[in-house]
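Take a specimen:
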Amino acid sequence: MTTHICSYCGNEYKNKKRWYEHEIICEIMHKKPTASTYTNSHSLIEHNNNNNNNNNDTIANPNITLETLYNVIKEVVKKQYSLEKEVALLKKHTIMKTSVLEWLGQNIKPILPLKSLLNAFTKIEITDIEYLLRCSVIEYLNYVIERNIDTYMTKHTNKYEYPIFIYENISHTYRNSSVMAFIKIYYYNFDVQQWIDDDIIGKTLWNNIQNNMIIKLNEWKKNCSDKTDNIEIEFQTTLLKIIESKKEDTHIKTIKNIVYNKLKTNINSVSYQFTV
Protein backbone atom coordinates (compact mmCIF):
# COMPACT_ATOMS: atom_id res chain seq x y z
CA MET A 1 0.00 0.00 0.00
CA THR A 2 1.28 3.47 -0.90
CA THR A 3 2.37 5.64 2.03
CA HIS A 4 2.00 9.42 1.78
CA ILE A 5 4.55 11.48 3.71
CA CYS A 6 4.08 15.08 4.83
CA SER A 7 6.71 17.34 3.30
CA TYR A 8 6.91 19.48 6.44
CA CYS A 9 6.77 17.23 9.51
CA GLY A 10 7.47 13.81 8.01
CA ASN A 11 4.30 12.10 9.22
CA GLU A 12 3.08 9.16 7.19
CA TYR A 13 -0.47 8.57 6.02
CA LYS A 14 -2.05 5.63 4.26
CA ASN A 15 -5.13 7.62 3.31
CA LYS A 16 -4.31 10.17 0.58
CA LYS A 17 -7.17 12.50 1.49
CA ARG A 18 -6.13 12.60 5.16
CA TRP A 19 -2.55 13.27 4.14
CA TYR A 20 -3.60 16.10 1.80
CA GLU A 21 -5.82 17.75 4.44
CA HIS A 22 -3.04 17.50 7.01
CA GLU A 23 -0.32 18.88 4.71
CA ILE A 24 -2.33 21.99 3.81
CA ILE A 25 -2.52 22.98 7.47
CA CYS A 26 1.02 21.84 8.22
CA GLU A 27 2.41 23.91 5.34
CA ILE A 28 0.68 27.07 6.53
CA MET A 29 1.74 26.60 10.14
CA HIS A 30 5.36 26.09 9.10
CA LYS A 31 5.25 29.03 6.69
CA LYS A 32 5.18 31.87 9.25
CA PRO A 33 6.89 30.95 12.54
CA THR A 34 5.51 33.89 14.54
CA ALA A 35 5.31 33.82 18.32
CA SER A 36 1.74 32.52 18.20
CA THR A 37 2.17 29.98 15.42
CA TYR A 38 5.57 28.73 16.55
CA THR A 39 4.17 27.03 19.64
CA ASN A 40 1.15 25.71 17.78
CA SER A 41 3.23 24.34 14.88
CA HIS A 42 5.31 22.37 17.36
CA SER A 43 2.11 21.30 19.10
CA LEU A 44 0.85 20.11 15.72
CA ILE A 45 3.99 18.09 15.07
CA GLU A 46 3.93 16.59 18.56
CA HIS A 47 0.22 15.80 18.22
CA ASN A 48 0.81 14.19 14.84
CA ASN A 49 3.67 12.10 16.13
CA ASN A 50 1.44 10.80 18.90
CA ASN A 51 -1.30 10.05 16.40
CA ASN A 52 1.20 8.42 14.05
CA ASN A 53 1.98 5.81 16.67
CA ASN A 54 -1.68 4.96 17.04
CA ASN A 55 -3.58 5.79 13.87
CA ASN A 56 -1.76 7.69 11.13
CA ASP A 57 -4.95 8.29 9.15
CA THR A 58 -6.43 10.75 11.64
CA ILE A 59 -6.13 14.49 11.06
CA ALA A 60 -4.13 16.58 13.49
CA ASN A 61 -6.38 18.95 15.40
CA PRO A 62 -4.31 20.94 17.90
CA ASN A 63 -5.76 23.69 20.07
CA ILE A 64 -4.80 26.69 17.97
CA THR A 65 -5.38 30.36 18.76
CA LEU A 66 -7.85 32.57 16.90
CA GLU A 67 -4.95 34.49 15.39
CA THR A 68 -3.43 31.30 13.98
CA LEU A 69 -6.83 30.15 12.69
CA TYR A 70 -7.29 33.51 11.01
CA ASN A 71 -3.90 33.16 9.26
CA VAL A 72 -4.81 29.65 8.13
CA ILE A 73 -8.13 30.82 6.65
CA LYS A 74 -6.44 33.78 4.96
CA GLU A 75 -3.88 31.51 3.29
CA VAL A 76 -6.57 29.07 2.14
CA VAL A 77 -8.67 31.89 0.67
CA LYS A 78 -5.63 33.27 -1.16
CA LYS A 79 -4.86 29.85 -2.66
CA GLN A 80 -8.48 29.37 -3.68
CA TYR A 81 -8.56 32.78 -5.35
CA SER A 82 -5.35 31.99 -7.25
CA LEU A 83 -6.78 28.68 -8.50
CA GLU A 84 -10.03 30.36 -9.56
CA LYS A 85 -8.07 32.95 -11.55
CA GLU A 86 -6.09 30.25 -13.36
CA VAL A 87 -9.25 28.28 -14.18
CA ALA A 88 -10.87 31.47 -15.51
CA LEU A 89 -7.84 32.11 -17.75
CA LEU A 90 -8.01 28.57 -19.15
CA LYS A 91 -11.72 29.02 -19.90
CA LYS A 92 -10.98 32.37 -21.52
CA HIS A 93 -8.33 30.75 -23.71
CA THR A 94 -10.77 28.03 -24.82
CA ILE A 95 -13.37 30.62 -25.81
CA MET A 96 -10.72 32.78 -27.47
CA LYS A 97 -9.60 29.91 -29.70
CA THR A 98 -13.10 29.82 -31.23
CA SER A 99 -13.13 33.60 -31.51
CA VAL A 100 -9.78 33.66 -33.33
CA LEU A 101 -11.00 31.14 -35.91
CA GLU A 102 -14.15 33.20 -36.40
CA TRP A 103 -12.15 36.42 -36.75
CA LEU A 104 -9.71 34.84 -39.22
CA GLY A 105 -12.57 33.55 -41.36
CA GLN A 106 -14.18 36.97 -41.49
CA ASN A 107 -11.13 39.19 -41.87
CA ILE A 108 -8.08 37.35 -43.25
CA LYS A 109 -8.08 35.96 -46.78
CA PRO A 110 -4.50 34.95 -47.59
CA ILE A 111 -3.25 35.16 -51.16
CA LEU A 112 0.14 33.48 -50.78
CA PRO A 113 0.07 29.71 -51.35
CA LEU A 114 0.95 27.53 -48.38
CA LYS A 115 3.23 25.30 -50.43
CA SER A 116 5.33 28.23 -51.65
CA LEU A 117 5.67 29.53 -48.08
CA LEU A 118 6.81 26.13 -46.78
CA ASN A 119 9.29 25.78 -49.65
CA ALA A 120 10.65 29.27 -49.05
CA PHE A 121 11.12 28.63 -45.32
CA THR A 122 13.03 25.38 -45.95
CA LYS A 123 15.14 26.43 -48.93
CA ILE A 124 18.75 25.23 -48.77
CA GLU A 125 21.73 26.21 -50.88
CA ILE A 126 24.54 23.75 -51.50
CA THR A 127 26.90 26.24 -49.87
CA ASP A 128 24.90 25.81 -46.64
CA ILE A 129 26.16 22.25 -46.35
CA GLU A 130 29.63 23.46 -45.39
CA TYR A 131 28.09 24.99 -42.28
CA LEU A 132 26.07 21.84 -41.53
CA LEU A 133 29.28 19.79 -41.51
CA ARG A 134 30.63 21.87 -38.64
CA CYS A 135 27.57 22.43 -36.44
CA SER A 136 24.62 20.63 -34.85
CA VAL A 137 21.31 20.27 -36.65
CA ILE A 138 19.66 22.65 -34.18
CA GLU A 139 22.26 25.35 -34.87
CA TYR A 140 21.78 24.77 -38.58
CA LEU A 141 17.98 25.05 -38.33
CA ASN A 142 18.25 28.32 -36.44
CA TYR A 143 20.60 29.74 -39.05
CA VAL A 144 18.83 28.59 -42.22
CA ILE A 145 15.17 28.98 -41.24
CA GLU A 146 15.66 32.39 -39.63
CA ARG A 147 17.48 33.56 -42.75
CA ASN A 148 14.77 32.17 -45.02
CA ILE A 149 11.93 33.69 -43.02
CA ASP A 150 13.66 37.08 -42.98
CA THR A 151 14.06 36.89 -46.75
CA TYR A 152 10.43 35.92 -47.21
CA MET A 153 9.19 38.69 -44.92
CA THR A 154 11.30 41.25 -46.77
CA LYS A 155 9.64 40.21 -50.02
CA HIS A 156 6.14 39.88 -48.54
CA THR A 157 5.73 42.59 -45.92
CA ASN A 158 2.03 42.06 -45.13
CA LYS A 159 1.71 39.12 -42.70
CA TYR A 160 -2.06 39.02 -43.25
CA GLU A 161 -1.38 37.70 -46.75
CA TYR A 162 0.37 34.65 -45.30
CA PRO A 163 -1.50 31.31 -45.23
CA ILE A 164 -0.44 30.80 -41.60
CA PHE A 165 -1.42 32.86 -38.59
CA ILE A 166 0.22 32.67 -35.18
CA TYR A 167 -1.22 34.44 -32.19
CA GLU A 168 0.18 34.98 -28.74
CA ASN A 169 -2.00 35.77 -25.76
CA ILE A 170 -0.23 36.74 -22.54
CA SER A 171 -2.26 36.75 -19.32
CA HIS A 172 -1.28 37.29 -15.71
CA THR A 173 -2.28 35.01 -12.88
CA TYR A 174 -2.89 35.89 -9.24
CA ARG A 175 -1.68 39.43 -8.47
CA ASN A 176 0.53 39.33 -11.59
CA SER A 177 2.82 36.89 -9.77
CA SER A 178 3.21 34.70 -12.85
CA VAL A 179 2.54 34.85 -16.57
CA MET A 180 0.67 32.40 -18.77
CA ALA A 181 1.40 32.63 -22.50
CA PHE A 182 -0.72 30.81 -25.04
CA ILE A 183 0.71 30.47 -28.54
CA LYS A 184 -1.33 28.89 -31.31
CA ILE A 185 -0.76 28.41 -35.04
CA TYR A 186 -3.43 28.17 -37.73
CA TYR A 187 -3.04 27.49 -41.43
CA TYR A 188 -5.31 28.25 -44.37
CA ASN A 189 -6.66 25.35 -46.42
CA PHE A 190 -7.25 26.69 -49.92
CA ASP A 191 -9.19 23.57 -50.94
CA VAL A 192 -11.97 24.19 -48.41
CA GLN A 193 -11.39 27.97 -48.22
CA GLN A 194 -11.10 28.14 -44.44
CA TRP A 195 -8.65 28.41 -41.58
CA ILE A 196 -7.73 25.17 -39.81
CA ASP A 197 -6.83 24.73 -36.16
CA ASP A 198 -4.27 21.97 -36.65
CA ASP A 199 -0.64 22.36 -35.65
CA ILE A 200 1.04 20.45 -38.48
CA ILE A 201 3.37 23.21 -39.62
CA GLY A 202 6.33 22.20 -37.45
CA LYS A 203 6.25 18.59 -38.63
CA THR A 204 5.77 19.60 -42.28
CA LEU A 205 8.65 22.08 -42.16
CA TRP A 206 10.94 19.49 -40.60
CA ASN A 207 10.08 16.88 -43.25
CA ASN A 208 10.76 19.43 -46.00
CA ILE A 209 14.06 20.69 -44.68
CA GLN A 210 15.26 17.19 -43.77
CA ASN A 211 14.68 16.05 -47.36
CA ASN A 212 16.39 19.16 -48.69
CA MET A 213 19.42 18.62 -46.44
CA ILE A 214 19.82 15.05 -47.70
CA ILE A 215 19.49 16.15 -51.35
CA LYS A 216 22.02 18.95 -50.97
CA LEU A 217 24.40 16.76 -48.98
CA ASN A 218 24.43 14.24 -51.85
CA GLU A 219 25.05 17.07 -54.32
CA TRP A 220 27.90 18.31 -52.16
CA LYS A 221 29.49 14.85 -52.15
CA LYS A 222 29.23 14.53 -55.95
CA ASN A 223 30.75 17.97 -56.47
CA CYS A 224 33.72 17.32 -54.21
CA SER A 225 36.91 17.07 -56.22
CA ASP A 226 38.54 15.30 -53.29
CA LYS A 227 37.25 11.70 -53.34
CA THR A 228 39.25 10.58 -50.30
CA ASP A 229 38.00 8.61 -47.32
CA ASN A 230 37.72 11.83 -45.33
CA ILE A 231 34.92 13.04 -47.60
CA GLU A 232 33.05 9.78 -47.19
CA ILE A 233 33.42 9.95 -43.41
CA GLU A 234 32.11 13.53 -43.36
CA PHE A 235 29.23 12.51 -45.61
CA GLN A 236 28.20 9.54 -43.47
CA THR A 237 28.59 11.42 -40.20
CA THR A 238 26.46 14.32 -41.42
CA LEU A 239 23.82 12.02 -42.92
CA LEU A 240 23.43 10.18 -39.62
CA LYS A 241 23.13 13.55 -37.88
CA ILE A 242 20.26 14.50 -40.20
CA ILE A 243 18.27 11.27 -40.00
CA GLU A 244 18.72 10.62 -36.26
CA SER A 245 15.11 9.82 -35.38
CA LYS A 246 15.36 10.14 -31.61
CA LYS A 247 15.99 13.89 -31.96
CA GLU A 248 13.11 14.52 -34.35
CA ASP A 249 10.81 15.96 -31.66
CA THR A 250 13.56 18.35 -30.56
CA HIS A 251 14.10 19.51 -34.14
CA ILE A 252 10.36 20.06 -34.68
CA LYS A 253 10.16 22.06 -31.45
CA THR A 254 13.13 24.17 -32.55
CA ILE A 255 11.47 24.94 -35.89
CA LYS A 256 8.16 25.84 -34.24
CA ASN A 257 9.91 28.20 -31.82
CA ILE A 258 11.66 29.96 -34.69
CA VAL A 259 8.44 30.37 -36.67
CA TYR A 260 6.51 31.47 -33.57
CA ASN A 261 9.07 34.11 -32.63
CA LYS A 262 9.24 35.48 -36.16
CA LEU A 263 5.54 35.52 -37.06
CA LYS A 264 3.52 35.64 -33.84
CA THR A 265 0.89 38.33 -33.40
CA ASN A 266 -0.13 39.45 -29.93
CA ILE A 267 -3.88 38.98 -29.75
CA ASN A 268 -4.31 42.35 -28.03
CA SER A 269 -2.87 44.13 -31.05
CA VAL A 270 -5.59 42.78 -33.35
CA SER A 271 -8.43 45.27 -33.83
CA TYR A 272 -11.19 42.88 -32.77
CA GLN A 273 -13.10 42.50 -29.51
CA PHE A 274 -12.73 38.82 -28.71
CA THR A 275 -15.43 37.08 -26.71
CA VAL A 276 -14.39 36.47 -23.12
Summary: The two ends are 46 Å apart (CA to CA). The mean pLDDT is 78. The CA atoms of residues 64 and 100 lie 52 Å apart. DSSP finds nine helices and six strands in the chain.
